[in-house]
Amino acid sequence: MKKILNFINGEWCESSTGKYTPVLNPANGKVLAEVTQSTKEDVDRAVQAAKNAQKSWRLVPAPERAEVLYKVGFLLKERKESLAQILTSEMGKVIDEARGEVQEAIDMAFYMAGEGRRLFGDTVPSELRNKFAMSVRVPIGVAGLITPWNFPIAIASWKSLPALVSGNAVVWKPATETPMIAEEFVKIYEEAGLPKGLINLVHGSGSEVGNAMVEHPGIDLISFTGSNEVGKAINGRAGALLKRTSLEMGGKNAITVLEDADLDLAVEGILWGAFGTSGQRCTATSRVLVHESVKKVIEDKLLARIGELKMGDGLDETVKVGPVINRSSLEQIDEFVKIGLEEGAKLLAGGKIATENGLDSGNFYLPTIFTDVTEDMRIAKEEIFGPVVSIISVKSLEEAIEVNNSVEFGLSSAIYTADVNRAFQAMRDLDTGLIYVNAGTSGAEIHLPFGGTKGTGNGHRDSGVASLDVYTEWKSIYVDYSGKLQRAQIDNY
Fold it and tell me: In whole angstroms, how large is the CA radius of gyration of the chain?
């Protein structure tokens, strides 16, 4: 049986416990590997290695640091297909989506390598004569990265690449469900020539490894993507320690379909947003706010198409909907469907665990559509994280915006309309970090900031130049070459 190990200070090693847990293929329940389970002592070793390595890494010129990232990008590109196969096997998403996710990591590697020649600060005029003023970015130190299973290499790239090009070292805890793709990513860093100690991989549970990272005085910041419950706990504890946190958490994303929309295009966006990755995206479409005059048409079109979504092992090129990650998620989704029925929502399609055609050995849930949902129902407010979408009728754009903004989350929203004026009104008034016009709620590109408002996060962003703000401090520098004491705000007036 393949053993997945930690990577600490440039060496692959077993945890101090010697314990392992199985890695399961969610499509068929087969054991793919066993992953080591670590403790606080393993985190201590990783942090010490990171601290030692970062002392010299921060002095390496950023363009030279970037050369490693370019090599990472080329290696990811070279191994795209094999990485996608691993990703699908342990996470379940269909192979086309897995290829797209690896491409996202490739794009991020090349983009962040380019930042090695930018990392811009500001040069500004001083208010005093013979005085020079500027600001520069400097690394924070050791970045603790905690990443989820649903985008195990894309999100890891969003966090590790900007951290490293900025001059930090990394201690990374991937999700227990997806350690194989994490191992391959670290091997690529290793082969690209990243000096030892700069990326350290520590496998284990959130309660053991995650908590140890948050509490560790040698970790200067925590970047976390995951549930709101865990994110809030991390923020509270890290805040008490004056430790920076970057949190990307839940979503309850909505597509608004107005009466003038291209309805066939809207249906394509709904199907992709709701059932892509089996609904296990923080940007998944979980609500459709449809104008009452076209509600029946949208329902009929969705029902006509939903039967085309073949379910099965994501390695099958013809499959459109793969499994959910584990049995616990499957049961949670089913519980939400029962809640929706109890609340009075009408079930149009799906609504049960899929067991036919050999699906009973995996974690499959039928693509599910509710209609006649009201905004006060739990299924319209809480994140389900599965292939379940709720249709809510609205009378106007203004009502749609109000319903969209009524939830505690603020990650992604979309609107389908042919009216440019209403599109711009929606872009102004929708309270989400991502907004799409005539497209679904998923499809972010790596050169723009990714993140949300309200309960979705704490104001920081992954991806784009904005991600550098997570991993750098600003240092303001003044050089007085006047040869005399000059007192700002005093001697200049």
Answer: 24
Query: What's the rounded Cα separation, in Å, for the pair 326 and 329?
Result: 5
> H or E stretch including 349?
strand 346-349
pLDDT for the residue numbered 474: 97
DSSP string, 242-307: T-EEEEE----EEEEE-TTS-HHHHHHHHHHHHHGGGG-STT-EEEEEEETTTHHHHHHHHHHHHT
Nearest by Cα to 27 from 102, 98, 99, 103: 98
pLDDT tens profile 371-424: 999 999 999 999 999 999 999 999 999 999 999 999 999 999 999 999 999 999
Residue 282 is among the residues annotated as catalytic for this protein: yes
Catalytic residue among 97, 101, 208, 248: 248
**Exposure string for 5-29, b = 16+ CB within 10 A, e = fewer:** bbbbbeebeebbeeebbebbbbbbe
> Tell me, what amino acid is at 62?
A
**398 close to 241: Cβ distance less than 8 angstroms:** no
94, HSE (Cβ side, Cα atoms, 13 Å): 20
Residue 264's SS3 state is helix
Backbone angles phi, psi at 444, to 5 degrees: -65, 145
Put the strands of the sheet holding 31-36 in their side by side order.
3-4, 31-36, 20-24
Tens of pLDDT, residues 444-464: 999 999 999 999 999 999 999
Distance CA 27, CA 85 (A): 13
Bridge pairing between strands 20-24 and 31-36: antiparallel
Query: Choosing from 282, 292, 445, 473, which is the catalytic residue?
Result: 282
| Residue 363 φ then ψ, to 5° | -110, 75
Helix (H, G, I), strand (E, B) or coil at 184: helix
Q: Let me know: does 380 contact 405? Beta carbons within 8 Å.
A: no
Residue 389 β-bridge partners: 369
For residue 181, which of 43, 79, 67, 322 has the smallest C-alpha distance? 79
Dist CA 119 CA 426 (whole Å): 33
Asked if 13 is an active-site residue, the reply is no
226 touches 434 (CB < 8 A): no
C-alpha dihedral sign at 328, 333, 338, 342:
positive
Q: How far apart are CA 163 and CA 371, in angstroms?
A: 44
Strand order in the sheet with 346-349: 346-349, 368-371, 388-394, 285-291, 253-257, 412-416, 434-437
Nearest-angstrom CA–CA distance, 345 and 335: 14
Locate 350 and state its tokens. Answer: 């799906």
pLDDT value, residue 491: 86
Helix (H, G, I), strand (E, B) or coil at 442: coil
